[in-house]
Amino acid sequence: MQLDIDFSGRHVFVFGGTTGINFGIAQAFVRCGANVSVASRKRENVDAALAALAGQGAQVHGAQVHGACGDVRDFDAVGAAFDGAASRFGPIDALISGAAGNFLCEANAMSANGFRTVVDIDLIGSFNVMRQAYAHLRKPGASIVNITAPQASVPMRHQAHAAAAKAGIDQLTRVLALEWGEYGVRVNAISPGPIDGTEGFRKLIARTDDELAAAEAAVPLRRFGTADDIANLALFLASPYASYVSGAVIPCDGGGAIDSVKPALERAGAHASGRV
């Protein structure tokens, strides 16, 4: 199910929009009639995404797609990607910034290079993308949506690198909402929960049938999320329906972020009552 939102004639750029959640977001904007630009580090991913998106765009009057290669860690390459997209479709109306890297590792076993790599991709990359996009979307009504993660506020084992990077993205979202609001640019973030079928889901969620069932049962809504769940929220945040929403970091996790405090509260209650 999608929101009834029309992006015909508008230019949406999805950085990292060739796979996973971000590709689902790109698909949703194409279905809503937007001219969609995507960028990713790997040319083969860009080409495959463009072929799939073009097939959908042909079914929507006026929808077109454009692709570029660029590593979010390379400030100049990111700028070139935006310049090329703006030459094709004009100024950017909405930016989705979602490039990310992650792996499971305890902090005491992690190399400095491993920690730095995730911070460079997630946090420095997010800054590079938004900073270079600014010249192309500095206008009233423009919208930026960052894709962050629950690790930003919920401590998780084996995720020191991702937690630090995502916490930085959350604060960067809020600071830029303050600084760019006077120009009419809204900046928000989505924090996805466990989204079925994604690389992050395969890496970070339990893998046996019993573990998967337990993880699903732990979500208050009793189901894993879908790419459409995230895409629908991105559509809303980029649309006029969210014209007074800025500086928000919004969980889209079936209530998981709320429920994550329960074990700590239960332990605190047990300690206070002497049940330890």
Could you walk me through the main structural features you see in this protein, from its secondary elements to its overall organization?
The chain has 10 helices and 7 strands. It has 276 residues and is α/β, with parallel strands linked by helices. It has a 7-stranded parallel sheet with strand order 3-2-1-4-5-6-7, sandwiched between helices. Helix 1 runs parallel beside helix 2, helix 1 packs across helix 8 and helix 4 runs parallel beside helix 5. The termini are far apart. The C terminus is likely disordered.
Write down the oligomeric state.
Answer: single chain
Look at the structure and give the mean pLDDT.
Answer: 88
Largest sheet: 7 strands, parallel
The termini sit apart by 47 Å
Low-pLDDT regions: 261-276
How many β strands by DSSP?
Answer: 7
Count of DSSP helices?
10
List the helices and strands and how they pair.
Elements lengths: L10 E5 L4 H12 L3 E6 L2 H15 L7 E5 L5 H15 L4 E4 L14 H26 L5 E5 L12 H21 L5 E7 L6 H6 L4 H10 L8 H12 L10 E4 L3 H4 L2 H11 L4
Parallel strand pairs: 1-2, 1-4, 2-3, 4-5, 5-6, 6-7
Helix pairs in contact: 1-2, 1-8, 3-4, 4-5
